[in-house]
Structures are given as structure tokens and as C-alpha cells.
Specification:
CATH class of the largest domain: Mainly Beta
Distance between the termini: 34 Å
Radius of gyration: 30 Å
CATH topology of the largest domain: Jelly Rolls
CATH architecture of the largest domain: Sandwich
Number of strands: 10
Number of helices: 4
């Protein structure tokens, strides 16, 4: 539905040369009267203008609510969730990089030479919210890790920048959620626009057929 044409017209202007223009002296005078609450203190004015003042107050409160709602909605839409998915055959009990770069079935224990398999580029700043793992084997105590490379690096280090809380994947064919990614100092994970990101999985037992979903939180106010 299109926005209807406005019905109101201005009460006065402070610029230009139209007949409704008021100068700064007059504007200061009426502002001072308003700030001094003369429209309330003067009983005669209040009796005459009371109904109008009441309606203006209602409009003011409505505008404040619209402003509050619009601000909240705009801030919400500036940050969005983005989902990545991949599947692979986990044949290691060591840390292994997951193929989020192309969603394929190949995993490996090092990032070296595997940019196109494991990496994805952040279009804006953000963080990894959580990662869900599911495999045909019970993997025991496991961890998911975030590896980040800035400009000038082909791939990130095999040593993670951020580690999830450990989760016991006690049952096969069951989904487990990994979150709370922090660095060694306890700082929450984050990445910048243009960063290269890889995600690794570190199980106690071999996972075999495995799928993973990563949920990213992207801040579109800081795009590349």
C-alpha cells in the first residue's frame, strides 16, 4: 500500500520570504513562553486551548512511540543471520577443517593449500553465533573452533583464534550445538569485513558421516 498524501500544512516558517515567516526574535519569544509553561499557568489560555493541548500531547506520544519502534526496527535489520552448511566424512580424531567453502565432502587437518575448500570471506563485520554438528558416530567430548585470517594471509593458522565451549556428543545421529566462541583471554569471537574465516571440528572419536550448520551474525552497517 502506497503512502497517502499529507494533509497538514506548516504553521509558520523560519526561512525564505513567505508571508508565514517569523523572525528569530518572535520565535525566541514564543519558545520562551512555551518553556515557561505559560499555556498551562495562564488559566484563561488553558481553558480555551486545553482540548487542543490535550490532542497535541496525544500526537506527541504517538510520534515518540513511532520513533522508538522505527529505531528498534532499523537496528534489527542492520544485523542479520546467515546460514552455512556442509557435509563430510570425518576420518580423524585430530582437529579437522570443515568444507564450508564449497559445501563438499572433503575435510583435512591443516588449512595450508585449502583456501578454496574451507574458507569463506566475510562481506561485513560480525561473529559466528553457533555451529551445529551431527554425525553417525558418538564423538565424545568435542570442540568447534574459529580460524580467521586478515589481509595479506592466504589462509588462517591451524591454531584457532576462538574456541567453543566443549560439548559431549554422547549419542550418534543426534544434533549438538556449539557456541560461546572466545579466545584464550575470554573475549567473544568477531571478524571484520573482508576477513577469511575457516571453522574446524575437534572430536574425541572419529565422526565418519558428518554434517554441520554454521550460523553467522552479520552487521551490515560495517560492509567491506
Amino acid at each position: 500500500m502506497a503512502l497517502a498524501n499529507k494533509k497538514h500544512t506548516r504553521i509558520y516558517s523560519t526561512t525564505g520570504s513567505d508571508f508565514d515567516k517569523i523572525d528569530s526574535t518572535k520565535l525566541d519569544r514564543i519558545a520562551a513562553k512555551f518553556n515557561a509553561k505559560e499555556h498551562i499557568a495562564d488559566e484563561g489560555s488553558f481553558e480555551t486551548l486545553g482540548p487542543v493541548l490535550y490532542q497535541l500531547q496525544q500526537v506527541t506520544e504517538e510520534l515518540d512511540e513511532i520513533r522508538r519502534f522505527a529505531t528498534a526496527e532499523l537496528n534489527h535489520k542492520a544485523t542479520t543471520k546467515h546460514v552455512l552448511n556442509c557435509g563430510f566424512y570425518g576420518s580423524y580424531t585430530a582437529r579437522q577443517f570443515m568444507p564450508f567453502g564449497y559445501g563438499g565432502t572433503f575435510e583435512y587437518t591443516t588449512s595450508a593449500g585449502r583456501l578454496e575448500n574451507f574458507g569463506f570471506v566475510a562481506p561485513c563485520s560480525g561473529k559466528v553465533d553457533y555451529v551445529i554438528m551431527r554425525s553417525e558416530q558418538a564423538c565424545g567430548n568435542s570442540q568447534v573452533n574459529i580460524h580467521i585470517a586478515g589481509a595479506g594471509l592466504e589462509v588462517p593458522s591451524n591454531t584457532p583464534n576462538f574456541y567453543s565451549t566443549a560439548v559431549n556428543m554422547a549419542a550418534d545421529d543426534t544434533s549438538y550445538k556449539f557456541q560461546n566462541f572466545t579466545n584464550q583471554g575470554g573475549q567473544e569471537n568477531s571478524f571484520n569485513a573482508g576477513d577469511l574465516i575457516m571453522i574446524s571440528f575437534d572430536p574425541t572419536s572419529t565422526s565418519y558421516d558428518t554434517i554441520s550448520t554454521a550460523v553467522l551474525e552479520l552487521d551490515w552497517t560495517n560492509e567491506l
